[in-house]
Amino acid sequence: MTDKTKKALKIAQDYVMITLGLFTYAFGFTAFILPEKIVIGSVTGLSSLIHYWVGWNVALTYYAINIILLCIAFRSVGKQFVLRTIIGASISTLFIGVLQPMFPTPIIEQQTFMNVILGAVLCGLGLGVVFTHNGSTGGTDIIAAMVAKHSTISFGRTMMYCDVLIICSSYLLFHSIDKIVYGLIFMVIYSVAADRVINNTRQSVQFLIISKKWQQIADAINTAAHRGCTILDGTGWYTKESVKIIMVMCRKHESVNIFRIIKETDREAIITQSNCNAVYGFGFDELKVRVHSSKKKAVTGDTPNLPPSDNQ
């Protein structure tokens, strides 16, 4: 299989999972939250607030607000983010528009708190899948990305401020503290569910393996598990003999395969496994940190105009 084919299959898999995640999000919102008239955060909550106020279609309002925000923030967020957001917003609009008429009343009637919990879990799981596969639903992400580029306020804090503001604004329409409380409960559960999906997918582990058959184990990990190894030099203090230590980093779901390779090669090998909060670099996650323009020039090799030295 060529590299182009693998890349095409990976992109196709991402879009399938993004579509599934957006459907889960739309189902949780339209089946549990919207019929209860609970205002949640993001553009979805703003669209539902407008729907309750003037009766506009939620799906079309959601799409229109996203397009307006993208037009305003086009230069700040970049073409790739705009493209991903348009695709995500279009699919979300379709699902919300189709599902909303199917659920005029909540699935679980007269159980508002239960509907909020179930809706938040489904929306969080769906959004977690979307983010894991590099998708975007737009909404307050656009505002947060724009603010983060031009100020020191973090991305997550801006999103939280926007979501809380939208939820609290429901009091102007319903004059009910209960609606605000339910909206805030939704936001907390939804965030936890989304974080759990993202963290479980990206969680990595580190192996340290001490074995006399270190070469066979390292070769098998390279060829069978498709993971790189680093060989470290060590000394066994009891025997005073030199030993080789294999260091391997992999995704958590790949650890079973690593254990199987070690067991098949050397049953007497000493193994330690530890969880890593994050692993960045080739084969793992991309390090997404804003680089200041002056440091970016230094990294790319651009040298600022300096006065000539005495030796010139």
Number of strands: 4
H and E string: HHHHHHHHHEHEEHEH
Overall mean confidence score, pLDDT: 83
Largest sheet: 4 strands, antiparallel
Structural commentary:
The chain is an alpha+beta fold. It has helices at 3-33, 42-54, 58-77, 79-99, 112-132, 140-150, 155-168, 171-174, 177-202, 214-223, 255-265, 293-300; strands at 204-210, 230-236, 241-251, 270-276. It has twelve helices and four strands, in the order H-H-H-H-H-H-H-H-H-E-H-E-E-H-E-H. A four-stranded antiparallel β-sheet has the order 2-3-1-4, with no helix packed on it. The radius of gyration is 25 Å and the shape is elongated.
Please give a quick description of this structure.
The chain is an alpha+beta fold. The chain is built from twelve helices and four strands. It has helices at residues 3-33, 42-54, 58-77, 79-99, 112-132, 140-150, 155-168, 171-174, 177-202, 214-223, 255-265, 293-300; strands spanning 204-210, 230-236, 241-251, 270-276.
Features of this protein?
single chain, four-stranded antiparallel β-sheet, 312 residues, alpha+beta
Write the layout of secondary structure elements.
Blueprint lengths: L2 H31 L8 H13 L3 H20 L1 H21 L12 H21 L7 H11 L4 H14 L2 H4 L2 H26 L1 E7 L3 H10 L6 E7 L4 E11 L3 H11 L4 E7 L16 H8 L12
